[in-house]
Design goal:
This protein is an alpha+beta fold and 143 residues long. The chain has helices at residues 83-91, 104-117, 123-138; strands at residues 9-16, 29-36, 42-49, 54-62, 70-79. It has 3 helices and 5 strands, in the order βββββααα.
Length: 143
């Protein structure tokens, strides 16, 4: 008799170095990796800006180990929700193109706040994740 394994989602913040020579704290890219049952690959959700406007993008089957520009990762937590449900909620975190200083780093905080609002992570888990992200950002030079 087999026992069904409950669906769980590991939530991890990823931080990438800029590869164009402008690797500063404010220019490092961030996003959320949502992995089913602690698998290596997962869904990457992040706010991207290619033409002056941010938009939320999702990449399924993303493996962070394949990125040469990954600066690091910080674990937020593991929740007992299916990864597809978490992806849907996180993907609907709005971007704020009306705010000049807003960026993908703010989006990560906003997305985690949505998960706090749903009661899926605690405010402490959110803050610990943001602190870990800030530590990774602080490794870049000022600019």
């Amino acid at each position: 008799m087999s026992v069904a394994v409950p669906a769980s989602t590991a939530i991890t913040i990823l931080v990438w170095r800029k590869t164009d020579g402008l690797d500063y704290k404010k220019s490092r890219h961030t996003g959320l990796l949502l992995r089913k049952n602690q698998e290596i690959e997962g869904g990457l959700v992040h706010a991207t800006n290619t033409d002056g406007l941010f938009r939320v993008e999702a990449d399924y089957g993303y493996n962070p180990l394949t990125s040469s520009s990954l600066a690091g990762a910080t674990q937020v937590g593991v929740i007992n929700k299916h990864v597809d449900v978490v992806m849907a909620i996180v993907q609907h975190t709005p971007v704020h193109n009306e705010l000049d200083e807003w960026n993908c780093q703010h989006w990560v905080g906003d997305a985690l706040q949505r998960l706090v609002g749903f009661g899926w992570i605690t405010a402490e888990q959110r803050m610990d994740g943001i602190d870990g992200m800030a530590d990774l950002l602080a490794q870049a030079p000022d600019g």
